[in-house]
Amino acid sequence: MQSFYVEGKISFLDDEEQTFYELMCPKCKNIVRTKIIKGIDCGNCQKHTMLTPRCHFQVQMTDGSGSTTATLLGELGENFFSMRAEQIYDIINIKKDPLPLQCTQQDLANKVFKIQLRNSYCRNSDDALAKLFVSSCVKKHDALQLPTSLVSLDVGESSK
Length: 160
Hints:
This protein is α+β, with helices and mostly antiparallel strands. It has one domain: CATH 2.40.50.140. It has helices spanning about 75-80, 85-95, 100-110, 155-160; strands at about 5-10, 20-25, 30, 40, 50, 50-65, 65-75, 115-120, 130-140. The strands form 2 sheets. Strands 1, 2, 3, 6, 7, 8 and 9 form a 7-stranded antiparallel beta sheet that branches. The chain has a two-stranded antiparallel sheet with strand order 4-5. A hairpin with a 6-residue loop joins strand 4 (about 40) and strand 5 (about 50). It starts with a strand and ends with a helix.
């Protein structure tokens, strides 16, 4: 896996199918393709357990060279909404309401971030396209907190 930094803006994808969470086995972190929290016999670790939500959504990152899509997971994603994954699950699945994205989107619109990305290549895919995951993200004026030992690339370069 390769890591690199970009500086740019972040926005939510205009995707009505994005659920903003996924359910997983809390013991082995295996993702289960269902939308309802329930007890399961995990096919990966063979344990009986209750599924746990984890924040999971895609964003668009834009800099002077172009734009690309990346995935935010777990606590990093929760920080964007100032909500835990359980709250996101509750709003979407129990209350059947949409997430309040407008306030967060407006808050993101005027900010530039220093974003650490990592490539993850699909093992089962015929194409060699990498998926990008956000490893860390800080407002640019806070960017001095990040280590500087990794290579920095433009967003447009990372999608080539």
